[in-house]
């Protein structure tokens, strides 16, 4: 195993950013392809900059984010946060006490790490279920989570969603929906209602997932609950600052579901072409992915022996894909604890600039290369930037 800690992941991320930085510096932004589906953006209008310098700005933006946020998510009141993770932490600080329990229903484990980590921080126990028939609300449960769409874009079933809301409310427990990508995937691709319209008490989405906004968390909820969460958010500095708030508002104004719909309808061709050669590849609503287990299976099928963990394989693959083909995926640039799944999102803005055949070839070649170095730990460490040598160079 090479990547063993959050610290190793920080190193890996720094190596990736270094490659990106040097590409962008020498050949411009168009020399790289961000296919993560969370490329973000900061679509300010001319007049916005001037307002950032006055006290009037935040007042104006607050009004706009309330209106646009409610349009996007439903609910009575909106709270803009620094990240989705910040919203999750703020809600847990506000609604969960030491000794309480948090239960979580999601279409497929694992949950985003911010949920169990925040539970631990307040001294709450945490249980998660991906089988709705096992899901239970206990005596001590003070908050129920539902994940609308997982980090790997597995989307919740609407019937199960409603069942969990009903169960929670029978026990008088509020429901918080982690709808980071789900607020768009669930509604645009699967035509599900907004979380707040299915009885949720709180919902949060990431304004850089499947839309071109800044990384930030947009939360909607019933007014009294939002007020409690907001109070905690302000105490601990978790709220979004005015420049982020205005960029979120502009991104919501610009949001068009067409790119998501088109990716959903056109992904099959690319996915099928890859599947012929790479049986472990899997479909997602707007693209395809390889899970860490998939890389391990491909090594096994090719008779490659390796001392790398399945996650290491995914990290090395993502770094090779970046280094050799300038394609950015989450395992290369993601934060510690983020999913190690290599997911290509064809709804990404940059996906329109890369030919499908080129993408297919890049993926196949990179897998081939991974096979050729997977048994050489030193070579893999060098790719990840975790070797002694690479660290000295930094
Ligand atoms: C991305 C994501 C988050 C966290 O978003 P951040 O911007 O990293 O805080 C939380 N939950 C799910 C399901 C996600 O996909």
Examine the secondary-structure arrangement and name the CATH architecture of the largest domain.
Answer: 3-Layer(aba) Sandwich
Question: In terms of per-residue confidence, which ranges show pLDDT below 50 for 5 or more consecutive residues?
Answer: 390-394
Q: What form results from the Cα inertia axes?
A: globular
Beta-strand percentage range = 5-15%
CATH superfamily grouping of the largest domain: Type I PLP-dependent aspartate aminotransferase-like (Major domain)
Give the SSE order as H and E letters.
Answer: HEHHEHEHEEHEHEEHHHEEHHEHEHHH
Please give the order of strands in the largest beta sheet: 2-8-7-6-5-3-4
Major sheet:
7 strands, mixed
Q: What is the CATH domain class of the largest domain?
A: Alpha Beta
Q: What ligand species are in this complex?
A: pyridoxal-5'-phosphate
Instruction: Compute the average pLDDT.
Output: 94
Q: Helix count?
A: 16
Oligomer: single chain
Estimated structural class? alpha/beta
Count of discrete domains: 2
**CATH fold annotation of the largest domain:** Aspartate Aminotransferase, domain 2
Number of strands: 12
Rg, Å, rounded: 21 Å
Helix share bin: 40-55%
Distance between the termini: 22 Å
Walk me through the structure.
The modification N6-(pyridoxal phosphate)lysine is found at residue 209. InterPro entries: PyrdxlP-dep_transferase_arc, PyrdxlP-dep_Trfase, PyrdxlP-dep_Trfase_major, SelA-like, UPF0425_MJ0158-like_C. There is one protein chain. With 394 residues, the protein is of the alpha/beta class. It folds into 2 domains: 6-37 and 257-388, Aspartate Aminotransferase, domain 1, CATH 3.90.1150; 55-254, 3-Layer(aba) Sandwich (Aspartate Aminotransferase, domain 2). The protein is built from 16 helices and 12 strands. β5 (141-147), α6 and β6 form a beta-alpha-beta unit. α1 (6-27) runs parallel beside α12 (310-325) and α4 packs across α8 (223-236). It starts with 5 loop residues before the first helix and ends with a helix. The protein binds pyridoxal-5'-phosphate (PLP). Pyridoxal-5'-phosphate binds at residues 83-85, 112, 114, 147, 150-151, 178, 180-181, 206, 215.
């Amino acid at each position: 195993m090479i990547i063993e800690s959050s610290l190793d992941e920080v190193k890996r991320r720094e190596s990736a950013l270094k490659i990106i930085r040097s590409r962008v510096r020498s050949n411009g932004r168009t020399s790289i392809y961000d296919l993560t589906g969370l490329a973000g953006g900061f679509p300010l209008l001319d007049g916005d900059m001037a307002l950032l310098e006055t006290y009037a700005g935040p007042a104006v933006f607050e009004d706009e984010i309330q209106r646009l946020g409610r349009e996007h998510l439903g609910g009575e009141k909106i709270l803009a946060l620094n990240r989705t993770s910040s919203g999750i932490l703020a809600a847990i600080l506000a609604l969960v006490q030491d000794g309480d329990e948090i239960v979580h229903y999601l279409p497929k484990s694992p949950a985003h790490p911010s949920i169990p980590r925040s539970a631990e921080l307040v001294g709450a126990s945490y249980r998660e279920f991906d089988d709705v028939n096992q899901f239970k609300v206990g005596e001590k449960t003070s908050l129920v989570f539902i994940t609308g769409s997982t980090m790997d874009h597995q989307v919740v079933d609407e019937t199960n969603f409603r069942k969990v809301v009903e169960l929670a409310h029978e026990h008088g427990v509020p429901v918080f929906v982690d709808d980071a990508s789900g607020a768009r995937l669930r509604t645009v691709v699967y035509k599900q209602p907004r979380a707040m319209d299915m009885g949720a008490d709180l919902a949060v989405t990431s304004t850089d997932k499947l839309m071109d906004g800044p990384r930030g968390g947009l939360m909607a909820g019933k007014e009294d609950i939002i007020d409690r969460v907001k109070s905690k958010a302000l105490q601990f500095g978790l709220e979004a600052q005015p420049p982020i708030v205005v960029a979120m508002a502009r991104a919501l104004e610009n949001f068009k579901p067409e790119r998501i719909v088109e990716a959903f309808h056109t992904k099959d061709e690319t996915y099928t072409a890859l599947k012929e050669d790479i049986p472990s590849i899997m479909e997602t609503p707007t693209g395809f992915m390889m899970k860490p287990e998939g890389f391990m299976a491909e090594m096994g099928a090719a008779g490659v022996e390796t001392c790398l963990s399945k996650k290491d394989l995914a990290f090395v693959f993502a770094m090779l894909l970046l280094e050799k083909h300038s394609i950015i995926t989450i395992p290369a640039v993601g934060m510690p604890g983020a999913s190690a799944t290599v997911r290509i999102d064809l709804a990404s803005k940059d996906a329109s600039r890369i030919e499908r055949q080129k993408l297919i070839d890049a993926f196949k070649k990179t897998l081939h290369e991974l096979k050729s170095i997977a048994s050489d730990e030193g070579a893999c460490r060098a790719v990840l930037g975790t070797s002694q040598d690479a660290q000295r160079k930094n």
